[in-house]
Fold each of these.
Amino acid sequence: MSGEPDHPDDDALLARLVAHLDGAGDAAERAAVAELLGRDPRARGMLRDLAEHAVVAAETVGLPSVAGPASVAADEGPRPGAAPRAAARLVWPSVLATALVAGLAASAFSFWTTAKPTHAVLTAGSGPRRLCAASGAIHVDPPPGRTLVAGDLLETRACDAWSALAAGEETGLVIAGDTSLRVLRPASTERRFELAAGTLWITARPGAAGRIVVECPVAVIEADGASCRIRAGATAAVVHVHGGVVRVVRRLDGAAVEVADGEQITIDLVDPTAPRVEPQPEPADAWHLEPDREGAISWGVPGFAVDGAAAGVRARPLLWPIPDRDPILLHVVAGAARRGDGRPVRLDAATRIRFRGRTQRPATVRFGFSTQRMQGMFAGKFEVDLPPDRLRTVADGWEADLAVGDFQALFPGLATSPEGLEVQDVYALTIVDDAGLAITAIDIRRE
Amino acid sequence: MPLDQPSILRTLMQWRTRLAAAAWLVTRDAHAAEDIFQTVAVRAIAGDAAFDAEAALVSWAFVCTRHAAIDWSRRRRREAVGIDAAVLERVEAEWIGVGADDARLAALRACLEAVPEASRRLLRLRYADGRGCAEVAERLGAGLEAVYKRLSRLHAALRRCVEGKLAAAGGADR
């Protein structure tokens, strides 16, 4: 490609449009360009080309840089983030384990020796993620090694996306899917974050130095050498502590409580009574989907019983974002494996999961569940595809009665087997093809 | 008979780049434009409207995209770029008039792959990172006018490259 102008007039017009789209020019110039675009098809053709160039260029050359957002040098050098981006996603489970257990060797070294005022460094990630940098730049799927500074916002943009960070030599953070975490300016030596929504795990070595403060919409959580899980929403926050002691302050009135290892607390705007610390419930080994219970259906449309057939939950379409690829259309029913008594549901070798449902025509159905370590961090998804001839016919549809060993790990670097893990969501789906999937029952039981 | 979901999705994916480009004209943020396309696609397949033909779907998608992009900009208090709604409507109609034109977009992708590193960097800063030209100029150690000139020459070269590839493909076809 040469950079020579195509035609003097075109070149001038393009330059004018480029400046216009940058917001340049005084009121008279802007009005003149607007008037030109209104009457001149050639100018509109260039405008269309410019917009297409911008969008396709963002896809084609929009690979994130590794160095900090304020670094000019990061943009000057060979782009180390470009080629390894796909590779980074493949190796991330092992990086994650290294980061959280061993304390981040190389990346932590660069973090602590840098002169920039960084507050965390990305150590691993998977799935669609986005870093909205304080500088205004947006980095899609930021790679390990990326430093975060005050004002940076890290988002996971799908329920199976994850990102791990180091916040000090002995403390790791992991954000779950559909989570927004902003880095705040530290008050002293502590590191501060804002968890607008989603789930955050803090994992610290016992007695680790360095306080982490997490501001949620309804509570402020202070973890000093402690490990915990925080689930935050607009009106409530739930904190489970599984190491050390965490201080939780309700924003509404400043009421503060200390939550110790094995305890949990819920701060909810609808509950004005004094915050109460409770022991975490013992895990259970059975659960069944109760579609009428609030929050039980995490994806799908509750249906009605018709002609004696059981009322089911109908699949809803879900456009599944995939980095570097077109999204895939899924038709999904998903239930949150939360019991009414609040006990987590633990899987073991003898656990079986039974799905009952129907499709309007024969179709392969994918069954799966997502897990986390007991009161701990994400442990991956497990799935199995069953063609129509493996779905056992029952009165009003079909049944799939599966041992947990029948499911394959999607992220074997996290856990190769679901045994001993806590189940979070259970789901069934068809891919691309809408076969009219409806699920009438899901239950987990131990044989 | 209304379009079924696979047909809706297939059509929208064919128009993905141009719908995102329409959103970009309002937001000037390529990532927001992609998000807006996703939102519109989900609305289409979730049954917000029924479409008897692809043309109806595409028209609906452009209108929906424009409104979503304007809402996005309002929420972020983005300064208007001065492209009024009437112009946007004409641009959308012209896009619809030329069709999805996958060959042109494929040629554009091929041309972008071939740009030299310095130009890639300019495109990355301006469009992938979404920086204003003043910030791009600062990062490049160049003047603002020089950045405008470099960008416009780059766009001109891309246009010429696309036309060249399309002409060559047309000649080969014959």
Note: Chain B touches chain A through 75 residues (CB under 8 Å).
Amino acid sequence: MWNSASDFFAMGGYAFYVWGSYGVVFLFFAMEIALVIRRKRTILQRIARIARMNRE
Amino acid sequence: MQIFTKAFWLQLSSPKVFYPVAGKLAPWFAIAAAILFVIGLYVGFFVAPPDYQQKDSYRIMFIHVPLAWMAMFVYIVMCGYAAIGLIWKTRLSTMMASALAPTGAMLTFLGLWTGALWGKPTWGAYWVWDARLTSFLILLFLYMGYMALENAIDDPQRASRASALLGLVGIVNIPIIYFSVKWWNTLHQGMSVSTSGISMEPSMKIAMFTLAFAVWFYTIAIALTRVRSIILERERHAAWVVDLAKAGGR
């Protein structure tokens, strides 16, 4: 269907719209994944720190 | 078998029991989502032929439609959890509702974003105040209102009650979005998948449904991971949470 890699990336002249859609979707997904992982790490560290403070 | 007993399922509604279960399930949904994304994107970009009218711009549909479907579906699931929490006062249900809201809002935003980028080459405008687009924008505001209300009230029980009520009132918007293309004369095209007759090439349908399942499994993986943080945050005084954090967490 595509004659070359540049033909594929050109998307028949709609590169901005097609890659602008898929690019932003996967950028947001990547950011959300990073955020949920960080949130869990942060809360666990905070609870551990409070527990250490209470012991002292 | 253990899974056939009522006690097994009741147990799962306890945040303490659900925490490790969610942790075990999330990676499997993430892996399934990743595989489905690869297959769906491959079919969408390398198997499905260009559209005879819209050429290659129509490939936005493969992600736009799943995002829009899931944005509405997640809202219904979120309200279902919120309603269960409201009626039976089960803490885990309200936590699941809170875990779904940010992803639902993000899917709604991305549905609007991909729609705008598809609208420009197709209609000549990024945005029009059409019934479908306007009702979908209201869905974004409902998600944002739900999260804002929940965060604005300090007492978690009152917060989840208030946001659940807002969410449930807003559910009337879902049929409005869904049927808007039938009820009003809109610029937005009709339903891509109709029960009467086939309007799409099989490979196009495969790409769209595969990506719909990919987005669904992605949402489940994210919600399961986020609900674990919410459990830890709300149960931070419980002995098991403190012990878990001291042990380095897992």
Note: Chain B has a mean pLDDT of 89.
